[in-house]
Amino acid sequence: MSTLRSVLDELRGEDLGVASEEELGDGLVELERASRVLEAERSRRLVEVERRGVWAADGHLSVVSWLAARLRLGFGRASRQVKLSRALRGMPATSDAFGSGEVSSEAVGMLVGAREAAPEAFSEAEHMLVDAAMALPARELRVAIAYWRQAADACGAEERARRIYEGRHLHVSPTIEGTVRIDGSLDPESGQTVLVALHAVQDAWARDGSEDSRTAPQRRADGLTELCRAWLDRSDRPEVAGERPHVAVTVDLESLTGQIGRRSELEDTGPVTPGTARRLACDAGVSRVLMKGASEPLDVGRRTPVVPSGMRRALVLRDAGCRFPGCGRPQAWCDAHHVRHWADGGPTALENLVLLCRPHHRAVHEGFGVEMNGHGPVFFRADGSVLAEDRAPP
To answer: Is residue 2 part of a domain?
Structure first.
């Protein structure tokens, strides 16, 4: 072990600034191979720790709890390491390839799963599957193992497919922070449908030419929101309690007009900032509710759109899409933003409206500004400096 530590100290002391690009690339490949060898050796030693009962000598009730405490790991990770080390005892070809650094721990995990699914068939096919693991990228290996499992257990494949379908689930839970946590598992067909839809939205964003600084998880989250918003915007939605489903925000007049109010909240997720309420109210349907005191409604008016459909069509003809400099997102992804908010007395008229995509609508309500001049909207930063317009005025 002292030799290993010396080698690692030597690696840490290398001056990477003088290394060539080829040396950096080759070095990463060798480090990956070395890390695989170390992972395999850890598994081999863990088997011996369990065989000798070293964990019991320290008063632990299982090798998993001993490993978690000794290495300061989470219980789940420790459990996975123990499971892997146990499985490798019965997988000689896989162990050899892992120990020589020829296959990754991800590939080994897939091979372990294949063995669990069909132990007898795996024993006969292990060398073939290990060869595949040494040659194929992880994604292709996953597909190859799936086909092998179907061939190895044709009768059981249908039963597995049924179990996967019956196990589908989706949890959508508002949290105490006001966010919504989404977690679940879909069968292959449903999952592929979701992936295709999300990819389609993200591909459309990529084609519009706008600079996008969002992370991949953020783009997926926004894509899911956009898909749901598009469905809610359809005119053929079924009615619930006499209305088509819609996102409802309840806000008092003080909050809406920028004063200190008492209520500004979404129906399921709870309180939002007055700024968020004002942004949502920019292009929405509004119902007036006259209250007596804090809880007794005296009169409820009809819900009417802030921007009528005819006005929206005229705005689309004028702006075509998001007018924020550098953005080209189409009108279907845009809100009609009131330059001077209607709650502050701003008119719902073309000279006071501009199309903004949802991210830029949020940006304008949270720091950027916009004014109208004789040629169209002028956008500026919080410090007052003007953003250059990169498209011809309408």
So the answer is: no
